[in-house]
Every structure is written in structure tokens, then in C-alpha cells.
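call fold target=Perilipin-3
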Amino acid sequence: VDQVANLTLVSSACDMLSTAYASTKESHPYIRSVCGAAEKGMKSMTEATAICVQPVLTTLEPHVAAASEYASKGLDKLGEKLPVLQKPVDQIISDTKELVSSRVADAKDAVSS
């Protein structure tokens, strides 16, 4: 999970969503109260789940460690094959706009000639 969260694409997307969430929450009082209640509920549910799941996790720890190592190797390979994962969302959007604009210009030139 840490390795996925540290991918530039994922971390920049999370930052963007967090900023949008905070901005929306601050701009609208009704949404702020609903979000506050939802956050408290999620916190309580997460704490209760952690307490219940801890004995199971302790038992499964060797298996989880093996799966984690396997997943880590897979993510490394995925990162090599998909360099876009190492780019921030803003750059991907900019690159995509640039590519589309270039293709449209090429199509216009082809049609006009």
C-alpha cells in the first residue's frame, strides 16, 4: 500500500482530491457538517475494525508478508513498463492536451492540403 501511495501519479491525484475536498468542505456549510459526521463515523468504524482484525492479522502475518513482497515486485515491474505512473496528474493532463492539440492541427493541415 505504501509503495502504491508513493507512486507520483497516485500521490498527486490524492493531493488534488484532498485539496478539492477541503475547499468544497470549507465553501459549503451544509456539506461541511455532512462531511464532518461522515469523517467521525469512518474514524470510529476504522478503530473498531482494527481492534477486531488485529488477532487475524497476527495469525496471517507471514502470509501477508509474502504477498506484500510479491506485490512489491509486481509494482516495480509495472512502474518500469508504465512510466506514466511516475508523472504527476497535472503533467499527464498537460501532455494529453498537447498531444490532442497537435493531432488536431495535423488533421486540419491534412484536410486543407
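return ok
The chain has a mean pLDDT of 91. The chain is about 90% helix and 0% strand.
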